[in-house]
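Appendix B. Raw example, untouched.
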Amino acid sequence: MLEDTIIAISTPFGSGGLGIVRLSGKKSLLIAKKIFKPKKTKAKIPPLHPILGYLFNPEQKECFDKAYLTYFPSPHTYTREDLVEISCHGSPVILEELVRLGIKAGARHANPGEFTLRAYLNGRIDIIQAEAINDIIQAASYKQAKISFKQLEGSLSKKISTLRNQIIHLLSQIEASIEFPEEGLRISSKQTLKTMESVILTIKKLIGSYHLGKILSEGLTLAITGSSNVGKSTLFNKLLEKERAIVTPYPGTTRDYLKEKIKIKNSVFNLIDMAGLDTPVHPADKEGIQIGKKLASRAEGVLLLFDGSRRETLTDYRLLKKFKDKNTILLFNKIDLPQKMNKKKLKGQDKNLQTLEISALKGTNLEKLKEKIYEFFVPDQKQGEEVIFHLRQKLLLEEILGYLIKGHLCLKEGFPEEVYVEEIRKAIPLIGQLTGEIRADDIIKDIFSRFCVGK
């Protein structure tokens, strides 16, 4: 596969001022010369210097656009292969024609993520850095992009490498004391426990960071729920800052559910508006309520809305009890109207419950609500701490942690060194899978299939 020269459009699909077609492989420059003609006909193409010229169609022997060609010789390129980039007008027709001509001249169309795959296979980056590249491209927030850039530069890879070195060094010390007891190389159980506890704590922090990573990359799901006609859809529209949900004065307007993304500071939230959780009066209401209950139970957070302008009901108390064990903010809505609800009594049901009084209709305290949502649902990232964004990374770290905890337990309970060292040893190949040193082809294929074609 690496013997082929590949070609693809590297800029997003659609019209634009500029578009880039990229080639990578041994024949990159040779193929490029067949479809690009320098403006100065006898000009050579020097490395790392853009050359002005024309896109050339060998079939019709005519030029069809002005362009710049830049040649990057191996090994100091993104793929560590010879690489050529042709920059022309960003017309999809022109770019697609250029790719077609490049394929006819001897290139092969790149598969999704194949440029980055070649960078990985040629040893320029590891799998964690490859995932970081795609994270930057797909970043849902600026904070995610900043963290991913640091990981592309190797911050997470270095942390994992340090962990691996700590474990290998510990293993070598233990095994030396087993094999050569007479040499005085024995490591104390106390020192072994201390090293293992340090590694275990670091891995636990990495696993714990996945929650923040998921919020930054995919968004945290927030369900707006409550009885009918308490202002759920009005709040949904106000937070989105557009009229997305239908709002009427009549109960039961929302029977299905709506889902939209909002951004608060540097984090993304998937906001869900749903039917009121009342006693159904129509079969469609019943279905909508069942869907609403499922969505609220699966959501990572709940905005529980009460109507402060009416007396509290049994349904209100039931809802408080229902969401007692979830991350919930209780909102007393319609404070622009005379208040009848006994808020103190409702708050007393759970003294730790986060509460806020708002008017969704008038927009009162909605900025405070956004602040509260961010503070309550987004975990802190301490200075210098890494964040993981991928379930693959989390699952591997959990498996590594499992072996280390088992080894730690065996050591504390006085098992022979041969027993606990075997558990520690099982973690090493898993770390290799984490960074891509040990390749699992199905996983590699899955990772790079998520990339765009030109990357």
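End of appendix B.
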